[in-house]
Amino acid sequence: MSSECEARHDPDLLGILAAEDNSIPAFFNAVFGFLARHCPEEIYGSTQISGEHLVSQSYCKWRQQYLANRAQESVDASHCEDGVVPVPPVAKEVVVETDNEQEQKTPVVVEHDGTDITTHGSNRPVCPGRLDTNNGADCGNYSWTQTIEDLEVRIPVPSTIRKGRQVQVSLQSGSVGVSVEEASSRGLWRNMMEGKFPHEVRGDESMWSLVPGEHVSIHLEKSEERWWDRLLVSEEPIDLKQIDAERDFSTLPEEERQRIRELMWNRQQKEQGKSTSDQKRLEGVLREAWNAEGSPFKGQMYDPSVLDLAASGGILGHT
């Protein structure tokens, strides 16, 4: 999608942000409130792809864009000294810190990509429990779900796992491994999950996060658009005929989205007894032909009912 298309809502969104005193938490609250009022089932309902997963998908996409832009700015500033081009790490770590005190502000994100960066904001709700596995499986010590473009994995961890340094994630294009530090003995690690993927992922656009004392989440971008019947080759395959294979509208190519909009508009026009887009295009052609050279109707006021009668009588078929 072009940058022009992506930025087309900027004026409206800037207006909302300004109305919320430029508060990011208040802005998100307004957005999710809108979704709750107008399409709650698609975002919060249990029959759809997890809303938490959709948010993570968009977050990862734009965070990767930010990291790429920052790396490019660093290259431009240093004029590519010694021919070394800095790139983002293969897998990024995000530690989400929470607090049960409602009135206190808490750290929202601590990122580890070479330097420690802490961003502060208001409390936000955390969705505990296991992942919605409608498009994946609950494998006991971890669960996973997917869209046609990416995967989300959740691994429950002991309540003693509070910091990112207590977690080790090995993420390659063809495999993954997650271990946590044993509470009883520093330096000893317990393997939580490990295995090979049935298909490759894009390591440069994958990341993992920790919700302290709850779980590790791993976001994986697929190398190609396809539905996986398992996360790891060691698993029993799921029945792909039973999954929700519908694609999110925002992930479709612009041409397909335009075609869907046209189909929906045509259906609405038919329900209201109005002309569809095909009928309007045909009418435009007929209007041009009405006054074309050699037309028996040239110079007369356009009347589509006359054309219907002429067509049924075979008049339009003669030259």
TrEMBL record:
Q: Which biological process annotations from GO are given for this protein?
A: protein folding
The CS domain covers which part of the protein? 137-232
Q: Which PROSITE patterns match?
A: CS (PS51203)
Gene Ontology CC terms: cytoplasm
Q: Which GO terms describe its molecular function?
A: unfolded protein binding
User: Which Gene3D superfamilies does its entry note?
Assistant: 2.60.40.790
Task: Please name one Pfam family that this protein belongs to.
Answer: CS
PANTHER family in the cross-refs:
NUCLEAR MOVEMENT PROTEIN NUDC (PTHR12356), NUDC DOMAIN-CONTAINING PROTEIN 3 (PTHR12356:SF19)
UniProt name for this protein = CS domain-containing protein
Record the organism. Petrolisthes cinctipes (Flat porcelain crab)
